Amino acid sequence: MTATVLAAATVACTQSDATPPPRPGFPAPAYEAVDLQGNTVSLESMRGEVVLLNIWATWCGPCRQETPYLQELFEEHEAEGFRIVGASMDTGNAADQVEMFTEEYGVTYTVLLDPQMRGMDSYNVLGLPATFLIDREGIMTWMKYGPLNETDQEFQDALEDALH
After folding, report:
1. I want to staple 130 with a disulfide (CB 3.0 to 4.6 A). Which of 55, 141, 144, 162 is the partner?
2. Which of 8, 27, 10 lies closest to 138 in space, CA to CA?
3. Is 10 a domain residue?
4. Is 161 helix (H, G, I), strand (E, B) or coil?
């Protein structure tokens, strides 16, 4: 019986339909969640724009530290077809907490609620924050696990390339 359980576990871990981890140069994994107004928003609906997907939570210290920079980026590049999607991984009924966070930080970019944390699974995220740059064709061009900061020249170059 132990061999049967082990064999079943091995098969479950090697299924070919498992989502591959995200990688630059490949299509960004499909993702959708509900925004603060209750509308379903998908990355696919933003095709034609450059999208920065930021996976975060209100309780995450590094997420809080990077939020002003994200807002600054959004304001600076919005007219160039740049969108930021902040996907909150706060569990439970955290809409009020997320709303207070966006007010406190003056966030005007798109914020999604993902209490089931599907974004973490889709983007192979083990810790927060995590950020993914997606070009106008839906191809991931850059990614980072950990906080984004203003001195990251690799990110700056990737953003400029995606926008122009």
Report:
1. 55
2. 27
3. no
4. helix
